[in-house]
Amino acid sequence: MIRSFLLSMSCSAFALPTFSCSSDDSSSSGGELIDNPAAAQSATQAVEDLNAFQALSTNEQDSAAIGQVYGLFGNYQSMLNAKLATQNSAAALSTSAIDLSEIEAFFAKGDFPDCVTNASGTVTYNDCSVNGIYTIDGTLEVSATGFTSNLTISSDLGGSSTSITMTGSLTLSDTEISGSVNQTVAINAGGNTLDYTINADYDITLSDGCATAGTLKVDGNWSTGTSGGDYDLNITATFGPTCGDVVLS
Asked: Exposure string (b/e) for 142-165, b if CB count within 10 Å is 16 or more?
């Protein structure tokens, strides 16, 4: 399962937006309904994927959990891209993927090297080097009632630096999901910079593992530095009243 999660997110959770537009600034704060089936599916997936965390609590090494965390942010980005498309028609959105294939392979093995320890459900990554390119540090706690993430992936090689931090805490049960998670990305490559933040807030009621009420609110901010663009967006997915119903605004 971890392999499929990581492969599916490699061009989404870490596909970072760059912009070419005539405006230096764009902001949006909800309102109009958004008809985007792909983004609505991403919102649904961002809820359904969390159901797997409870199952991961029985895995003493929680080896798949970090793949789940990656995948969540790919879904959030899809939602924000849908909002950008409706609110900033002058922006030409393209993606520039950071190649994290080595990290994918690292976690797909399903076992941990000496740099990773597990104690009472808390997995600690201590200066884990991935082929000398990326370094992973931090902790990830997974239990039957939720997860807490404090992970950093960094690289400083050949005049290019990348830092990706994933933090947050969610409470999970058979009937609800609540809490928030955050991803912060900072890239400097050849003098071009990108600062990128996503925050997702969950307040959702579940019935048989499906969202039937509540909201998932996602806020995103991009600062593209020398390429000239600052974007502050938010989008809300409202679920229910029946399983499968989701409205974006």
From this structure: bbeebbbbbbebebeeeeeebbbb
Residue-wise pLDDT for 77-134, tens only, equals 888 888 888 765 444 333 344 555 666 666 655 555 678 887 777 888 898 887 777 8
Task: Determine the Cα angle at 209 with ends 205 and 215, to 5°.
Answer: 30
Amino acid in the structure at residue 16: L
**CA atoms of 47 and 51, how far apart (whole Å):** 7
Cα–Cα distance measured from residue 187 to residue 30, given in angstroms and rounded to the nearest whole number? 28
d(CA 4, CA 15): 17
3-class state of residue 129 by DSSP: strand
Hey, what are 71's tokens? 């995948």
Q: What is the pTM of this model?
A: 0.78
